[in-house]
Amino acid sequence: MALGTYDRTPPPFFRQGPSALTKLVFFAALALFLMVADLRFEFARPLRAGIATALLPVQRTLNVPVQLWRNASDYLQGLDAALARDKAAERQSTELAEKAASAARLAQENERLRALLDMRPTLKVRSIAAGVLYEGADPFSRKLFIDRGAAQGVVAGAPVVTPQGVLGQVTRVFPLSSQVTLIVDKDFAIPVLNARTQARAAAFGGAGGDALELRFLTPNADVKEGDEMITSGVDGVYPAQLSVARVTAVERHAESGFARVLLEPSARIDGVRQVLVLEPVGLQQPQPQEPVPPPVPPKPADRPAKGSRK
Q1: CATH homologous superfamily for 123-284?
Q2: Is the pTM for the entire model greater than 0.70?
């Protein structure tokens, strides 16, 4: 091939146009001119408005995931805050309920203590205030334990009362506690007096549930529903005029030798917290003193017989 047939034009890579500095100066001047012209004449405002209008759907579409993420984050944060407020409100409600229950218990305890203190001046026997520790574990007996014992002066057989009436009697005494048998126990018996007729009788526990029973009454005995049974004070244990029970049912059968009379205790049996332990009346009675023998006169000294010599 002849040399004259070769293309002697350089390839595009090696072609040189304006220099880079020239391009930089040109485009910098053009940009400055356009900014000044736009600031002065605002000729690019329609162009910008059209471009913004065209790009608005794209911008909104691209902003949807970001907005969903923000909404989800706000929802979760609001949910956490709501749960925290709900827990705080529930905790506060529980605390208020506990305080209200405690206040109610304190009010009831204060009423019981005031009733006990008001009852003390009417009693002519010595008394000891005591608190109930727990009830006996035997399901076939009705007993409870109090926090006063021999160290505080409690003796066996001491009556135990509440502001409503007789609750029971101390049956066992320990150094720092005592066992109280309730009046509804099957082994309990107490002499009573009908406040209406002044007739004496004997009330026994174990009649079923929280009830007592008057036994050994004839079918024509003068007793009716609503009669109040009180202590007579002649047994040497219970002071007089303490309420024991009230008659709730009277069953008279001609073929039976005795009437069946059911009683409801005056004192509340369950849920008792404070009681009053009384000293038995018999222990406060003056004990008979043994007679003191008269003094023996001294024996006269032996005198010598007459005519005897010393």
Answers
A1: Rod shape-determining protein MreC, domain 1 (2.40.10.340)
A2: no
